[in-house]
Amino acid sequence: MNTRLLHYLFSLCLFSFSCKEPEGALQENKIIITNLFSQEVIGTFYWSHETFTIPVNGTYTYLESGDGAGTFSFGESDSVIIKFEDGKEKTDYNCGAPHVNAIKPECWKDTINLFNSSKYLQAKVSENKFVAYYYITQADYDEAK
Prior knowledge:
The strands form 2 sheets. The protein has a 4-stranded mixed β-sheet. Strands 3-2-5-6 form a 4-stranded antiparallel β-sheet. The chain contains 3 helices and 8 strands; from the N terminus they run αββββββαββα. It has helices at residues 3-19, 98-103, 138-143; strands at residues 27-35, 41-46, 51-54, 59-66, 79-84, 89-93, 121-126, 129-136.
C-alpha cells in the first residue's frame, strides 16, 4: 500500500475513535438548590433519608450521575419534605415515580415542586455534564402548612 493511503486509513481510524463518546459514558447533573426565602430550611429525601439544611441565601448541592441523571430523581427518592424555620412544612412528590402516580394521580398539578424540571434553570457544562438551579422562594413557603 502506498504511504498516502496508510496515512488516510490511520487518520480515519483515529478520527472515528476520538469523536465517539467513551462506551458507557455517564451523564452528570449538578443540582444547586438556593434558599432565597427569609427562613432557614431543612429538607429530607425519602427513600434515602438524606437530609440537608440551607440557611437564608445559602445553597445545597446534589450530584446525580448515571444513565438517568438529569431527571431530578434525587437518587430515586419519591418525595422530599421541606421544613421551614417557623415549623411550617411541605411535601413535594416525584410525579415520575409510578407508585407515586398510583396514590397521587394529580401530582403533576403541583408546579412548585423540587422534582419538577420546568422549575429549574439549566445549563449544559459539557457533553455529559449539566448544572441546574432551583430557588426556594415565597411560593414554596405559601404551599407549606
